């Protein structure tokens, strides 16, 4: 068996890997625990690298779960369809460990093999021969899975069409909104700015449309927590912000500008058919964990 001390030393890295593979800290902790059960009963006396062996065992546990989701055709759940305490736990881990919110969103679009290959190789520097061993395939096939994942994750040229927004203005406005800075928001909006939102994304009794900079700014302060849980992405090929608490998509914020001021804010629900990609300014790679 792997000594408990060695397993505990590896636990943070195993949890970091499992969280990116499964997208849930609860599921990640379960996968790590299952790995310990296997490690505590296996004959590991001849192991040269227990940490690498633990990584392989954990990844196979995660792969089984991803394949089960795939067989059941389970679509990623919207944030408001997941228990609030689970979303809060994911959000705490995401913030504490500096996990890319946008990356978690796009990882859910990959096949199990693509997700394993991409996360292991591109995020954790695992050699393709080890990735191939985990996937029970050849190194060439493992490379193909990672390459396909990259094409789905990394940014493409934004789709043309519609009025282009001033990204610097949009970023500044959302930063002010996240901090509840009404004066800064007012300075960045047109006087006749309009906010629209789908009815199921706002509390009962909240109008789906609000007009006038002051009214929009006042109301926006009520949703600062959601804005703080957003990230810039490409949504169906268009630049937008995605509200994704804990890395689970909830809504898309589309903002139009006029003369370097925010003129219209439209908030819509992210659907299972929405496609996400990393924005051009994001490399899609995280700092090593």
Automatic annotation (TrEMBL):
Keyword field contains DNA damage: no
Cross-referenced SUPFAM superfamilies: NTF2-like, Sigma2 domain of RNA polymerase sigma factors, Sigma3 and sigma4 domains of RNA polymerase sigma factors
GO biological process, any: DNA-templated transcription initiation
Single GO MF descriptor: DNA binding
Keywords assigned: Sigma factor, Transcription, Transcription regulation
Membership in a protein family: Belongs to the sigma-70 factor family. ECF subfamily.
Name used for this protein in its record: RNA polymerase sigma-70 factor (ECF subfamily)
Annotated source species: Tamaricihabitans halophyticus
């Amino acid at each position: 068996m792997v000594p408990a001390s060695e397993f505990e030393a590896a636990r943070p890295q195993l949890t970091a890997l499992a969280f990116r593979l499964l997208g849930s800290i609860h599921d990640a902790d379960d996968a790590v625990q299952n790995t310990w059960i296997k490690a505590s009963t296996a004959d590991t006396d001849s192991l040269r690298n227990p940490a690498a062996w633990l990584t392989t065992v954990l990844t196979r546990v995660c792969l089984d779960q991803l394949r089960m989701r795939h067989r059941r055709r389970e679509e990623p759940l919207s944030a408001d369809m997941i228990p609030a305490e689970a979303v809060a736990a994911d959000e705490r881990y995401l913030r504490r460990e500096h996990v890319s919110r946008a990356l978690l969103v796009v990882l859910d679009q990959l096949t199990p093999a693509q997700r394993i290959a991409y996360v292991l190789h591109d995020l954790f520097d695992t050699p393709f021969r080890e990735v191939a061993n985990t996937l029970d395939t050849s190194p060439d096939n493992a490379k193909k899975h990672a390459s396909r994942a990259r094409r789905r994750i990394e940014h493409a040229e934004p789709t043309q069409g519609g009025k282009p927004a001033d990204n610097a203005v949009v970023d500044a406005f959302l930063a002010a909104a996240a901090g509840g800075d009404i004066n800064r928001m007012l300075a960045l909006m047109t006087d006749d700015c309009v906010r629209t939102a789908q009815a199921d994304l706002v509390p009962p009794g909240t109008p789906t449309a609000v007009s006038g900079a002051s009214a929009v700014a006042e109301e926006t302060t009520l949703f600062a927590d959601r804005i703080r849980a957003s990230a810039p992405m490409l949504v169906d090929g268009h630049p937008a912000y995605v509200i994704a608490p804990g890395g689970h998509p909830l809504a898309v914020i589309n903002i139009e500008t006029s003369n370097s001021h925010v003129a219209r804010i439209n908030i819509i629900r992210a659907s299972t058919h929405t496609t996400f990609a990393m924005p051009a300014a994001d490399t899609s790679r995280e700092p090593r964990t």
